[in-house]
Design brief:
Layout: E1 12-15, E2 19-31, E3 34-43, E4 48-53, E5 63-64, H1 68-77, H2 89-102, H3 105-121, H4 126-147, H5 151-162, H6 176-198, E6 202-204
Antiparallel strand pairs: 1-2, 1-5, 2-3, 3-4, 4-6
């Protein structure tokens, strides 16, 4: 293998917006008759294997699992006060989507904190709820590996930091059909972005 690689086989990594994965192989594959080195990454959360060009890994935000210190810092961030977030859900959604794509553990914790507390005020639109669920799952995954702690314990840690004083969750409910309606404007745009992202990787079943 002539090309230097940042990651090694069997190493756990974070693939922004995709989750924690494992490098199962580093192999060469020809593309337009040119040899290209690829990371073969297994993503447990989606039970999917993707091939990412080694030279594009950094651009895609692929990184190592954070240290225990950084994981604990992310947990502490969940308990800290923060400035009010926009009431316009579309603006809020775009801000948090950009953070999700950046993919640092601090960015993910920021999304979880803001949307968790927003959901206590008013039910989140469907797209925003999906984004919250994705961010929370990403945070749970990375902290589980970083702290080498059972997932159930990590889930408790996250909740205890979100609700350090044991506040009971309360929120104003709204008709679910309304959530569907206000999400519709974003659906086509999101699908276009996903199509663009797919060009940077190959997936294997």
């Amino acid at each position: 293998m002539s090309q230097a690689t940042e990651f090694s086989v069997n190493q756990k990594i974070v693939y922004p917006s995709q989750g924690v994965g494992k490098i199962v192989e580093i192999k060469e594959k020809k593309f337009k008759n040119e040899p290209i080195m690829y990371y073969v990454i297994y993503l447990d959360v989606s039970d999917m294997t993707v091939m990412v060009p080694v030279l594009k890994a950094t651009d895609l935000g692929i990184r190592s699992i954070v240290s225990k210190e950084a994981a604990n810092d992310a947990l502490e961030l969940l308990s800290k006060e923060f400035e009010p977030i926009p009431s316009d859900w579309k603006l809020r959604y775009q801000i948090n989507l950009d953070l999700l794509k950046k993919g640092s553990v601090t960015d993910i914790a920021t999304i979880v904190r803001s949307l968790y507390h927003r959901s206590k005020i008013k039910e989140l639109p469907i797209l925003e709820r999906k984004l919250y669920d994705s961010a929370k799952k990403l945070l749970e995954d990375e902290i589980t590996y970083a702290l080498d702690t059972p997932r159930e314990e990590v889930e408790r840690l996250i909740h205890s930091h979100l609700e350090p004083f044991g506040v009971v969750e309360t929120r104003t409910t709204k008709d679910s059909s309304a959530s569907v309606d206000e999400d519709e404007d974003f659906l086509d745009e999101e699908e276009e972005e996903e199509d663009d992202d797919d060009g940077d990787e190959e997936s294997d079943d």
